[in-house]
Every structure is written in structure tokens, then in C-alpha cells.
Specification:
single chain, alpha+beta, Nucleoside Triphosphate Pyrophosphohydrolase, Arc Repressor Mutant, subunit A, seven-stranded mixed β-sheet, 9 strands
Amino acid sequence: MLTELEINNFAFETIPTISVDCVIFGYDNSMLKMLVRREFIPMDGKIHVEWKLPGNQVRRTENIDETASRILKEQTGLENIFVKQFMVFSDPNRLKTRPQDFEWIKPRLKDERVITVGFYSLVNLSDVDNSTLVEDANWANAYEVTELMFDHNEIFDEALKKLRYDLLHDPLVFELLPEKFTLTQMQKLYEAIFNVSFDKRNYRRKVNKMTYLIPLDEIQTGVSHKPARLYSFDRDIYEKTRTERFDFRV
């Protein structure tokens, strides 16, 4: 438990009523994952293992975006990755969703009402060195995460909705794909995030209209099946040729 001096020093450096919570999505092996933090919560004379989203309070010297970037660096070791603000969560009782959570965090609070700003980010887990993850952090299957602390289930649900919307209207999928990729890899990524299966013919018909997907004179190597052609995303062509927003509805 924090000492009173530690609590006072932390409150002086931060704004106690404003925080940032990050839904960090990762993609690996055709699976959508999210980063969660483990906490040990005393309740009924026992210690319970609970999970929450990565987050922290806003420092007085930071703007909100800087706080989100700091949280990502501190808790994943990553810098300069995609991060986007998507919603403010201001329910006066958001920390009291579960009584045991509130009792655990209460000694750390200067004010019982904390407004949090939700951000989501995208990382390709092949780019992540898990040794840089903060202690007690873990990548979990996004569809198997059940009860999170506070209102973090609501924050996750809203982040997933926003991620799916943005993927239909902006070329964010290429943040998670390698520089050179196959159309099947791209399809599996969409299927993982939307938790659906696309008809292959409709999918190929859609992507074949994308002039900014450049077929390369290269094929996969080191695979047991027939190697597929590799593609790359040309952002310059995308910016020059688009007449309306990116639309990936299949």
C-alpha cells in the first residue's frame, strides 16, 4: 500500500481527477489480442487476481496525447505507434462499478470522481519485445477477456466498436500488417478483428479494386503450402487517388 507521502507527491505531479486508459490491440497468428494488467485485490480475507486496462493519471506537464504515448512506452516499451483517442468516460460512479475495486483504489484517490479519456492503439505483436512489457502485463485473447475492473469492460467494448468502424473507413489495417503481405494475411486480419468469416470471392473482388495495393514480383518463402504473391500498400497512391473515404465493406 502507498504511504501518505507517496500519495501526496503523486497527486502533486498529476491531475487527480483526469486519467487515460488505453485499449492496446495486438494481432498475432490470426488472433486479436489486448493487453491487460494484473492486480491483486484483497477481499473477504483473501487475495483475488483481477485484470484491468493499462492506464494512468495525466501529469500536470502533459497534454492528453502525451499521457497516452507515455503509458504505451512505459507498459509496452513501444514508441511512435498508432494511437487514437475515441471517447471520454465521465460517469460519476465509474470507479464504483464493483465495490471491491473501489475499496482497493480509494486510498490512492484525492477525489472519488475520476474522468478518463479512452485511447486505442494497434501493434503487430511480431514487433513487440515481451521483455519490455511492464510487470504483471499480459496479452490476452480479446474475445476471451471476461470481467475487468471498474468500467473497463465498457471502455473495451467502445474501443472495439471504434476500431471496427475505423477499419472500414480508414486504411488502418496496414498498421498491423508487415510491409509485404499476402491477400490471405490481410483477409485473416479483418476476420480476426470483426470476428467473422468473409467469402473469399467477395473479399478478393473488393481488394482487386484497390489501386494502392501493389502486387510485387515476390512470393512467400518458407511456407509448406503453395507460396502466394506478396503485396504492399502505397500510401502516396492512396492519398492521390481516393475520391472519398476508404471503404472496406464486403
